[in-house]
Every structure is written in structure tokens, then in C-alpha cells.
Design brief:
There is one protein chain. The protein is mostly helical and about 190 residues long. Helix content is about 50%, strand content about 10%. It is built from eight helices and five strands. The strands form two sheets. A three-stranded antiparallel beta sheet has the order 3-4-5. Strands 1-2 form a two-stranded antiparallel ribbon. A hairpin with a 6-residue loop joins strand 1 and strand 2. Helix 1 packs across helix 5, helix 2 runs antiparallel to helix 4 and helix 5 crosses helix 6. It is globular. About 5% of the residues have low confidence.
Length: about 190
């Protein structure tokens, strides 16, 4: 996904991957050397397994709106990926601060003291991840959007949804010449 803040025109590219052998869910984040387990990021956002189950229930209701309520309650069964994410989150009996401390091992800055790296990681996951949601968006909103991304990936893997064609013109962002000239003028006046 390419996330772009409308006001600052700051864009970040992220991706979620499901490893085929282990079913481990990894996410690429800005300013990180390697991919990070999604469960670790959710823990850094202070999301526990009960809140994760609530999010799954909300997402399942959105997908299956035409089924009756009794069937929805019986279908509490989660997919392999969601079960693995829940198990991985339960295995991490760490706090938010411990999760951020673990995330520092994945970060770009290695020669900086651990305390400053923790502050840096906290700023990155709160300000740089999914900037289109806004800088003031809550960690709950960001984690819900990440789970929505995971659910769409899962539906593509299970052949219940078609893969998005990013080369299709309908999925492109089109801006007219006036807007582009305005951006050029604005950026040149800032210098």
C-alpha cells in the first residue's frame, strides 16, 4: 500500500506478507532494515488478544453482511492466518515498552543509544506509519487498518477476492496540470 498524507504530500510504501512455510505475518515499515512481525507492531500499538478478536468480529461482520446473525455467531472460527496472529500475539507476553524495545533491533539506526532508539521507533510507528490516516490518528485506528489490509490479502489468497491491479487506470491517482503547477510553485517558493 502507498499511504500519502493529503496536506503534506508525504508518502510511505508498506507491504504485508504471509510467509508460506510458517504462516507468519510480516510487515515492511518505513525506516526499518527488515520486515517486522505484525504481532510485534500490534503489541507496540498496545493491542491485546481480546481487542484483536473484537476487530476480527467487526471485520467479519463487514464481509458477511448478507448472512443471518445466527450463522455469524457459529462462524467464530478464524482462518489459519488469524489464528496464527492470535497465537503469536499471545506468545508475546510483553508490554508496549518491551515491544518498542524489540523493534529497535529492526531499525535503521544502530549506533544510537537504546533509549534514543526507543523514542525514535515510537515516533516512527505513530507518525510515519499510514500517514493518510493523519498524524493525530490513534494507534487503534492504525491497527484496525492494518488488519483490514491483512483481511484483503487473506481473501485474495483464498480466491474469494480478485487481486487489485495497480496498473489499471481506475486505481491510479490522476492530477491535472494546474494542480501539478501549483505544487511546483509552492515547492519553489518554500526554498
Amino acid at each position: 500500500i502507498r499511504s500519502m498524507n493529503e496536506q503534506t504530500r508525504h508518502s510511505i510504501s508498506m507491504s504485508i506478507k504471509i510467509l508460506s512455510k510458517t504462516n507468519r505475518i510480516m510487515i515492511s515499515l518505513p525506516f526499518f532494515i527488515q520486515e517486522v512481525p505484525l504481532s510485534l507492531l500490534l503489541k507496540a500499538y498496545n493491542i491485546d488478544s481480546t481487542r484483536l478478536k473484537q476487530y476480527f468480529k467487526i471485520l467479519n461482520n463487514d464481509v458477511s453482511t448478507n448472512k443471518n446473525c445466527q450463522q455469524k455467531e457459529e462462524e467464530e472460527e478464524y482462518s489459519i492466518f488469524k489464528k496464527h496472529l492470535l497465537l503469536d500475539l499471545n506468545d508475546r507476553q510483553s508490554s508496549r515498552d518491551e515491544a518498542i524495545s524489540i523493534l529497535t533491533d529492526f531499525s535503521v539506526c544502530k549506533n544510537v543509544p537504546k533509549e534514543k532508539r526507543c523514542l525514535y521507533i515510537d515516533r516512527v510507528i505513530n507518525n510515519e506509519v499510514l500517514p493518510h490516516l493523519g498524524i493525530a490518528s490513534s494507534p487503534e485506528k492504525k491497527s484496525f487498518f492494518l488488519l483490514l489490509m491483512l483481511q484483503k490479502l487473506e481473501l485474495v489468497i483464498l480466491n474469494k477476492r480478485q487481486c487489485d491491479d495497480r496498473d489499471n487506470l481506475a486505481n491510479k491517482r490522476m492530477e491535472y496540470g494546474g494542480v501539478l503547477l501549483q505544487e511546483l510553485l509552492r515547492s519553489s517558493l518554500k526554498r
